[in-house]
Structure prediction request, 887 residues.
Amino acid sequence: MDAFFRTDSDPADTSAWIESLDTVLHSEGAPRARYLLGRLLEHALTRGVTLPFTANTPYINTIPPDEQPVYPGAREIERRIRSLIRWNAMAMVVRANRLYSGLGGHISTYASCATLFETGFNHFFRAHQDGVAGDHVYFQGHASPGVYARAFLEGRISAAQMHAFRREVSANGISSYPHPWLMPDFWEFPTVSMGLSPISSIYQARFNRYLRNRGICDTDGSHVWAFIGDGESDEPETLGAITLAAREHLDNLIWVINCNLQRLDGPVRGNGKIIQELEALFRGAGWNVIKVIWGDDWDPLLAKDAHGLLVQRMGEVTDGQYQKYVVSSGEYIRSHFFGTHPELLAMVADLTDAKLRKMRRGGHDPEKVYAAYRAAVDHVGAPSVILAKTIKGYGLGEAGEGRNVTHQQKKMNEKELREFRDRFGIPIADRELAETPFYRPPDDSEEIEYLLERRRQLGGLVPSRRVRAEPLAPLPLEWFREFFDDSGEREVATTMALVRMLQRLMNDKTIGHLIVPIVPDEARTFGMDALFRKFGIYSHLGQRYEPADSDVVLFYREATDGQLLEEGITEAGAMASFTAAGTAYATHGINAIPFFFFYSMFGFQRIGDLIWQNADARGRGFLVGATAGRTTLAGEGLQHQDGHSHLLASTVPTVHAYDSAFAYELAVIVQDGLRRMYVENEPCCYYLTVYNEMYPMPAMPAGVADGIRRGLYKLAPAPDAEGKPRVHLFGSGPILRSALAAQRLLAERGVAADVWSVTSYSELRRDALACERWNMLHPGEAERVPYLTRALADEPWPVIAASDYMKAVADQVARFVPAGLTPLGTDGFGRSDTRDALRRFFEVDAAAITVAALHTLARRGAVDAAIVRRTIEDLGVDPEQPDPATA
Ligand SMILES: Cc1ncc(C[n+]2csc(CCOP(=O)(O)OP(=O)(O)O)c2C)c(N)n1
Ligand SMILES: [Mg+2]
Prediction:
């Protein structure tokens, strides 16, 4: 509390006021007391009595002891179960590091949150069952040993697997952290990259509401739980979206922040108080905040605290100092904490030093934690956050409890193991300690029976991931035929073509309702405002105003059953929605098909780690990088023009990235994506770059669909090639048209060029690398030949490859082109100008392609060197223009 409240000029009078309030509280209850205080405050304000703003409440538990519900569990059995899990979690890390020093793993995080997890497991987390959505739990990633240790007691992870912790390759062991990619039957949500799980959990909770409000799935009984570190709250993604959760009234969302006051290096807020800082933020954002700071040892002291001195002292001590108390003697705590005032010292006069040392923090007291969870689950109208104070490395004693180094603690000597065993009463003999065996009581023990019965009551085991959606029926290629015709005179951009395709999909009777269009405030830029009226923008409130553009056809229509997720300016939030939708086939048994349209510059570059998390989560869907291309997005300049997302996309193993030039290419790719992801159930994503350059769309030539999918097909063979020097021109996206123009310029100079459309360098490369690897490992067997090499086998001339992306994109396949490949691309910073000027500047226009082709042929002696110089002059190429890569 503020010092403002602490100068008491008339303590007797103050007591009288407080007693009156107590009387009201006792006789008429909290609502009446709240009303009176509210009226008093209002009255005081009208009389000019101002109060300093504070979003904080005192540094005590939000729920007083007399409002705690009766604990429904068997405390003693639960304590024993928890102790066994603590032991096994510690043992798996210690054993792994004994076997191979440096294998890693964390002991101290789970040690701090065991009670937080176990209260959830025994009393709250509901499993998914057929017809019941169940809860979605995001576990703090580096507390994974605790979740495994519980699964070991549950009998679904063997001792051998426990022993192989973190040896995922050599011993078929269990993975370091929650990774659905590696343990697809176990983990649901990847969490360990800090900050991603908090933001994901918010959008998961929102998506659950979206499914319900659209009548797709009943998610009413389901809660999303996220366990988060207090250090993790420093990540901008952690707190960046909390207002959304309150705005959307997500009372199905519960965060538990494990406030052990430490991160990896040291205190989170040594000079401050992380719980108070977070409380103010969450209260300000509209969350229901429940603080669980003190265990029941403190209740009698607080009851005696007539003058608020203890509460004051609790509030003024810094987190760094609280951490110091953990590693200090009872005597130190007495003199340092209570010694500031004789009244405080008197309060603890009858407590021994040993007792003072052991006074528990709230997060280690199951009854306090249960009360908080109960209140959070029952809270209506807003998300809840539980700020639970714990001790990092709880129970490790000298081996790390509360120490700054505890996060990295992975080994324990025999003395430390003995102390740990004794403290938690684990039935392991002294002589066995050195081996640190796992311990599981027999199936018919009280502990195992209790633990399994609790889970039965809650519907089954958590975490557990099961693909529950049935594959969809395929959409035949025929379905897309409107995109196979030429557009005649009409100029169309590929973005427009894709939005048109999306609309058609949304109108489809069988899969229309499953499409989830997502956009971070760029719908108009991409022409998606066409979706507003017909499909509506999702809002849990509907539309409580008359939109300013209600008189136009495409007015801004919000609706509770709106289909479009208009996220506002948050690519991170939009990506979290994309993952919630793209994993619904497992989390809800719903084949939601997300299409996330974003400025291509603000996708992989900006939120790459969320895309990586999506891949780990086995997410599906279409990522659409719109306004793509460093020269095609002409006017926006350096921070907007993307010339590298294809390189970044190639780094994500589950992403199939395509750079299309024409509507029919897009149609073939979308059809293929739907087949692979939703018919064949492949856990992958498609990345499509689409552009805003308008040009007539040609008709699809016969027999090219397979090539489009694989990444390359011949579009325009050289006319009159007989006896001429020859090259291949590869083009992608709008730059394919530069290649077609270069074909004409080269023909005028006596060179025959075949033009190919490359829809995906990364797909060509993956195929080539797979062949290369197979050949290396199978000497003497018939060699596998990459698709690209085969395509060029009978036409062994050199390749000039141009795209609106960096040269490294085309270079990915250079090794597999028998006669060599010269890449042209848009390396360097973008800038705004006309497309023609930019393509000249970045040397990806027809002139640059022509010069590159002639140069390549001249070096091979296929044309006269003089023609290169002449062409440079004729086409107005400035040989001295600055190199765009460094300009
Ligand atoms: C984005 C990211 N940066 C860094 C790390 C490495 N890291 C793992 S745990 C940790 C400290 C976590 O502290 P806190 O969130 O307070 O969790 P605690 O272990 O204290 O419960 C760090 C820095 C990470 N996992 N992710
Ligand atoms: Mg911490």
About this structure: The first strand starts at residue 136 and ends at 138. The two ends are 57 Å apart (CA to CA). The pocket of thiamine diphosphate (ligand 1) is lined by residues 109, 112, 140, 142, 192-194, 229-232, 258, 260, 262-264, 268, 392, 407 (CB under 6 Å).
